[in-house]
Amino acid sequence: MNPSCRHALEAGLLLGNQQNAHITALTMGPPAAEEVLREAIAAGADRGVLISDPRMAGADTAVTSHILAKAIETACPDADLILCGCHTSDSETAQVGPQLAEELELPGVAYVEHLELKDGALLMRRVSDDFLETLEMDLPGLVTVTTRQYPPRYVSLSGLQDAFD
To answer: How far is 61 from 92, CA to CA, in rounded Å?
Structure first.
């Protein structure tokens, strides 16, 4: 799991615990990427979904976003909030999250540092062009999370072992 995704997972787990929400971790990659999902489950996610097909190897960000959108529509059709790391581990383009929001026809906000649910809306803070922005979004929506906040929790060895059982 790349660092950005770890922080997004932690943000999701914290919000999910506050709202008693169901957390699904989803990733696209080779069969070995199942380990990332097991780690997410060990951290507190309820389930993991792996999208894997050799034909997807080397997919650009547009294809990746399209595939992830179809997977979300199938596996999580009623998702209220989709959290992504702000960068991917393979190209660091920061395009997948915003493109995914477009594919899903959802409002999207990138580079968020703080999330809070209040009265059915998502309140967010981010720094953009050296300005602190406070934003509000009705749900459902998609947010990419930076690595400035939400330090990932420690996942114990026993937690990992349980996730692999």
So the answer is: 10
Quick check: 39 and 163 in contact, CB under 8 A?
yes
pLDDT confidence of residue 91: 65
d(CA 104, CA 112): 19
Instruction: Tell me if 143 sits within 8 A of 162, measured CB to CB.
Output: no
Count the Cβ atoms, other than its own, within 10 Å of residue 146. Answer: 20
Q: Which amino acid is at 133?
A: E
pLDDT score for 156: 79
In single-letter form, the type of residue at position 54 comes to P
| Spatial distance between the Cα atoms of 84 and 29, rounded to a whole number of angstroms | 15
- Among left, alpha and beta (phi > 0; psi -120 to 50; other), residue 131 is beta
